[in-house]
Amino acid sequence: MWSRRQGHFRPTVCGVEELRRRRREQEAALRKARREQQLVSKRLLREDAPEEAGEGCVAAILGEAEVQQFLRQAQRATEEKEREGALVSLRRGLQHPETQQTFIQSVWVVWGRGELGLMRTLVGLLTSNQALLQLEAARCLHELSHSEQSTIAEACLPATSYLLTYLSGHSSDFIELCLYTLGNLIVESEAVRRQLLPQGIVPALAACIQSPHVAVLEALGYALSQLLQAKEAPEKIIPSILASTLPQHMLQMLQPGPKLNPGVAVEFAWCLHYIICSQVSNPLLIGHGALSTLGLLLLDLAGAVQRTEDAGLELLACPVLRCLSNLLTEAAVETVGGQMQLRDERVVAALFILLQFFFQKQPSLLPEGLWLLNNLTANSPSFCTSLLSLDLIEPLLQLLPVSNVVSVMVLTVLCNVAEKGPAYCQRLWPGPLLPTLLHTLAFSDTEVVGQSLELLHLLFLYQPEAVQVFLQQSGLQALERHQEEAQLQDRVYALRQTALQG
Amino acid sequence: MQLPALCARLAAGPGVAEPLPVERDPAAGAAPFRFVARPVRFPREHEFFEDGDVQRHLYLQDVLMQVADAPEKPRVPAFACQVAGCCQVFDALDDYEHHYHTLHGNVCSFCKRAFPSGHLLDAHILEWHDSLFQILSERQDMYQCLVEGCTEKFKTSRDRKDHLVRIHLYPVDFRFDKPKKNRSPASAEVPGDSGERSEGEAMEICSEPVAASPAPASERRTYSHRSVSKLFLKHVLNVCSVLRILGCTWAAALLILNSER
């Protein structure tokens, strides 16, 4: 349901263990890339001819002479089928990094000799008025765009104006191919992005987003997400995106209902996340109704969890949570009509359903969910009251053992509730809260303990009966364990005094 | 557990909880305690986002459509393109769709050139086949920039090309911006580019000669009608049948109309 491509892994002769190992390696590589802020991923559309399905491997690597020969054949053979066949052979050869390398190197070498370069020949075929030849040339270009070599993007610069021009056409498969190719080139090189902006990529995308074809929309979302991920996006790209009609269309794609396509929604949710976390002009998005759309989408996601139609749901939930959390920090949220656009109590219920889902399926997303809960409850007595009236304190406490980060966030949310005063603390007492705090005081992580101390302080202040029980349950000893810790000393001492005087 | 209660709440209508009274004691925030309830924001590159970002990229990288899973292109008994003059044959609907849109979708009815988009076709018809355009362009800037979203206009096609190259970084030999030549449209326009097919060639599927006929047949009338009438007065439509017989273009028709006033 969530992705038409889900489960389309390469049918492989290696076992499950090998797959897991590859997956772990892939993940480790991605983490490293992210820490170096070099996260580049590309998408590949590949439809091999049926004859290849039975074979274990793809066509052979091509040398420079063979590449040139195929290209010449594509231009000059008399039979159309021959010309198409030449490009098909070239495309298969281009599945090999070695052939890609050959092609790229030849681009620069041949230009030096004054001949028509390989890329220019390919672009000539891309713009030919023979439809199927054009399609095959586009597929060759797409294979090239997926190459891991960083020089590929600049080698493809001559093609970009045509790729953009074709976005205004009507052939949906072709447009999809052009969009994925553009997305791959965009993510690779700032030179390509510097060229695409004056070439009019933003108006081209704004026109193309009105296409009724789901495959085109998903491809467009992908290309746009690559553009928005660029380092220079906040200054150079996002302002023109926000000035166009793209934001309204993006939000439309995220509206829950029968027309919501999960694959499309995932792409545009990530686009929105990149825009919002860059903090260029979030009030504009709030003005377009981003908060209410995303809030309704959150309810929809919770509904999907309840119906257990949740395969891959975390791919959409993650950016939605991020967008909502960041938007809630905008001052505009408070001033729109004098009230927050997001006040519906169901949002809290939906969020907890999602937290349960993450707990079971994707614990790494718990911090993101709790981040939203913090931003919802921090300045909202109403949402804090909802937490209490919907009996959500205990489920919240059950998340504590997951990790230190999660523990700190759970305790922070509880502090949000407790700091609102006695009426709130009364509802936290008696109950599992105090025993839990005695337990977290035994943690070694300083931040967890520090947040526990803050919560204890609020509890003692607004619910003094708790002090006695605290003392009876060896609370002082739990405190004294930390009295040497620099970051905790002052608070430990203050709490001790309160407890002894109380 | 709590889940049924939450499900029930979700199923019920929207609502805002009536908040309990808020009553803060100043001692709450007194040193050494420092907790303040506040919403938190994370910027783009924050490490908080690492896990989710990695998941996102694993998803991107896993997208590899395999023929074993993707549906095969449905094959049908061979059929020919139905457009008059085109004898291309197909055995798959997808191929036909692309062929149709590329070669017959945005075709100039005067010279048979095919264009990738309606936008470029409109510009072509105006600039190549409309005598009124030529007249007006002597007095004002009429050559519109080809990039969608750019509203600049120029006196000559040369000026426009300069703009495309300098401002929009388009290639100097952009194929959809050939300057108009006085010879017949079927002749090769750009010498020296060995191997490159001239964009001015007729559809090469059949060797039917192309005539730059100013009196197109009625079915092809619809192509030029679509673009020109958008730009000129709609009342021209009322005299279309008369002028078709006279063998005039729309713009010439307008000229006749205006001169009759």
TrEMBL record, chain A:
Gene3D superfamilies: Leucine-rich Repeat Variant
Keyword line: Transport
Lineage top rank: taxon: Eukaryota
Record GO terms (molecular function): nuclear import signal receptor activity
A single GO BP: protein import into nucleus
Location of the IBB domain: 1-52
Classification via InterPro entries: ARM-like (IPR011989), ARM-type_fold (IPR016024), Armadillo (IPR000225), Importin-a_IBB (IPR002652)
Protein name as it appears in the record: Transmembrane and coiled-coil domains 6
TrEMBL record, chain B:
SMART domains: ZnF_C2H2
Region entry Disordered, spans: 180-203
InterPro entries found in the cross-reference section: ZNF511 (IPR039258), Znf_C2H2_sf (IPR036236), Znf_C2H2_type (IPR013087)
Residues spanning the membrane: none
Residue ranges of domain C2H2-type in the record: 81-104, 108-129, 145-168
Superkingdom in the source lineage: Eukaryota
Protein name: Zinc finger protein 511
Gene transcribed to yield this protein: ZNF511
